[in-house]
Amino acid sequence: EAGVAQSPRYKIIEKRQSVAFWCNPISGHATLYWYQQILGQGPKLLIQFQNNGVVDDSQLPKDRFSAERLKGVDSTLKIQPAKLEDSAVYLCASSFGLPSVYEQYFGPGTRLTVT
Amino acid sequence: QKEVEQNSGPLSVPEGAIASLNCTYSDRGSQSFFWYRQYSGKSPELIMSIYSNGDKEDGRFTAQLNKASQYVSLLIRDSQPSDSATYLCAVPNFGNEKLTFGTGTRLTIIP
User: Fold this and answer.
1) In A, what residues contact B, Cβ < 8 A?
2) pLDDT of A54-107, one tens digit each?
3) Which of A4, A53, A69, A71 could form a disulfide with A107 if both were Cys (CB 3.0 to 4.6 A apart)?
4) How far is B64 from chain A (nearest CA, A)?
């Protein structure tokens, strides 16, 4: 079974530029998550989708971050404009859903550096 | 008070010894608890889940849960150099499906 796919793996941009990340979850997984992990910290949930609907985006900085999950499969996360403090690893995870919603499988992540 | 707290470490343990990792949480309504392992430069990987008070064993790993004390721990027996990683404790928020992670404990197994 293929795992969660993410691209790109690395991205370097200047502040105020825009960037987009892509995620393809494990086939059949209804729930998709985007996390931000700053060095030395645990992952912080940015947004959670159930199929193509948003379940939780309370910690998503909506003035600069946006995300969508068209057709309930692939998802993209965009940052526009980027700030220095956005430098982090962006992790996508997916889960089958109830009752195993907490058994999340992570992709390899995208390491973003904002200069 | 942080929702999920862990000692950041680093925790150094000799090869073959028992490594003990601890986690406390603030939400008394939490019903399930998870341990993820994260190797340097890699993504988190689920290694243990525990739902009931007491111990749960899986190979060299034992998770211990004490809901009254709001405390969950992970024991690694016969520690191997390959166990060197950061271990993240994760707890769902009661009432929703949001998973809150601790900052992680960095474990180093010394050969």
Assistant:
1) 31, 40-45, 48, 55-56, 91, 101-109
2) 988 999 999 999 999 988 899 999 999 999 999 999 999 999 876 566 788 999
3) A4
4) 18
